[in-house]
## 1
Amino acid sequence: MQVFKTSEFVRLANKEGLADEDCCEAVDRAEKGLVYAALGKFLIKQRAGGVRIIIFHQEGHRAVFLHVFAKNAKENLSKRELEIYRDFAKELAQVTATQVGELVKRKKWVKIDYEQHRKNLSKRTASIAASRGEGSSRSRRD
């Protein structure tokens, strides 16, 4: 799974205090089918870190973070914004690996290390389970 942020998303995410970790967790939820709102083919809205985010999401293949806005600023995209993002999602579905590489090289997109996030999440989950005694075959009395 490849995960990217557009340069505009980076600017807005920094302004809103949204971390890559929040983005990766939004992708994790989407990969599990937990989507806040489906907006059209490959276009979803998720909640993350107190904001709403618009993501181009091709399950198991690629996610591109496109837009972020504060929940208290507005609930949804305008009809015009939604139309623009839907059209853009159609174009993104046709982007090749070579084109992705060029976008990253030209700093139009920034790659997020999603696989490292998943490894870190697995370690944290295992650590939490171990501290609670989960996964152990012995019984506990409280």
## 2
Amino acid sequence: MTQSHTCPLCGYRFTDSAMSACATCPLNAGCKLICCPNCGYQQPDLKTSRLARWLGRWFKTERPQAPVVACELSAICTLAECDPHQPACIRAFRPGISAPRRESLNAFGLLPGRPVMVLQQSPLTVVQVGAAELALETDLASLIEVDRGPAASDPTSLSED
């Protein structure tokens, strides 16, 4: 039975049969890792690794969900709802983003309190963070809350690193 996997780092979707590098690995028989064929990111297989399941239950934290406010009534919205060429400031990540995906977004500079500029919305949401431009899927952009208030409208703060 082949399982479908999605890489939390790059978002690539693949099946067990696509992990061809695992077939040549000498540790293949007892390996409990899932390796992305696109970027090489390795993560434990939660379905076969008892240790990973136990650690996941032990360190699982419930975070309070931020209130959802419509953009028409407030300056708070998501990246997917911002207009192109509109400055914004990252406010929070909604609970639907996994921890590894949140870490990769943080590595690219998407941090709470960081100013961003939405460059386009179609076909993907493209944002400028400092000197970098990132393309985000619409469902991921809808899980990132931003503030479109006066504090976010300072275009000089986008060039700071």
